[in-house]
Design goal:
binds inosinic acid, 3 helices, alpha/beta, six-stranded mixed sheet, globular, Rossmann fold, binds magnesium ion
């Protein structure tokens, strides 16, 4: 396993993102809507650095089997509380083709939040198939399959404290 982004770099960058979100949402309640399962470490690292009233909501969608995108998005577990009128930030581990977020954004907008933005820890711009605006991006990376800090390869490696890749 090779380290692409170490623990300190992750923490430093996520703290910067947290400060930006605090600024943009001054005095507001924020709903962090995490996409399971990969967003968990990122969501927590962001949330613990934000002083706003932060609420958690989770949704599980899948589009991937192994390392290949099937191009299909399915909702396996939906949110449990209403997001109507709320200021929602979708929290995602990585934007790859952009299919998952394009689909989920449309799906969630139909629930009438007051606002809906996206925070992604990683982005692989060269892989994009769907044009999707992502307001907060932690790191842009090249086209490499990465694991750790929530990201998996067949459900493995999510608990690594860094982002790595296998040669
Ligand atoms: P998209 O719909 O193609 O943007 O895919 C997004 C999803 O694919 C992410 O939520 C990840 O679960 C998965 N994914 C994309 N690239 C990687 C990677 O390099 N490592 C692990 N999972 C990935
Ligand atoms: Mg995912």
């Amino acid at each position: 396993m090779n380290v692409l982004i170490n623990e300190v770099k992750l923490q430093t960058r996520i703290k910067e993102m947290a400060r930006q979100i605090e600024k943009d949402y001054e005095g507001k309640q924020i709903v962090f809507l995490g996409i399971l399962k990969g967003s968990l470490p990122f969501l927590w690292e962001l949330a613990k650095n934000i002083k706003n009233d932060v609420r958690f909501e989770f949704i599980e969608a899948s589009s991937y089997e192994g390392t290949e995108s099937t191009g299909k998005i399915k909702i396996n577990k939906d949110i449990t509380d209403s997001i109507e009128g709320k200021d929602v930030i979708i929290v995602e581990d990585i934007v790859d083709t952009g299919r998952t977020l394009t689909y989920l954004k449309e799906y969630l907008l139909a629930k009438h939040p007051n606002s809906l933005k996206i925070a992604a820890l990683l982005s692989k711009p060269s892989r994009r198939v769907m044009e999707i605006g992502v307001e907060y991006i932690g790191f842009q990376i090249e086209d490499k399959f990465v694991v750790g800090f929530g990201l998996d390869y067949d459900q493995k490696y999510r608990n690594l404290p860094y982002v790595g890749y296998i040669e």
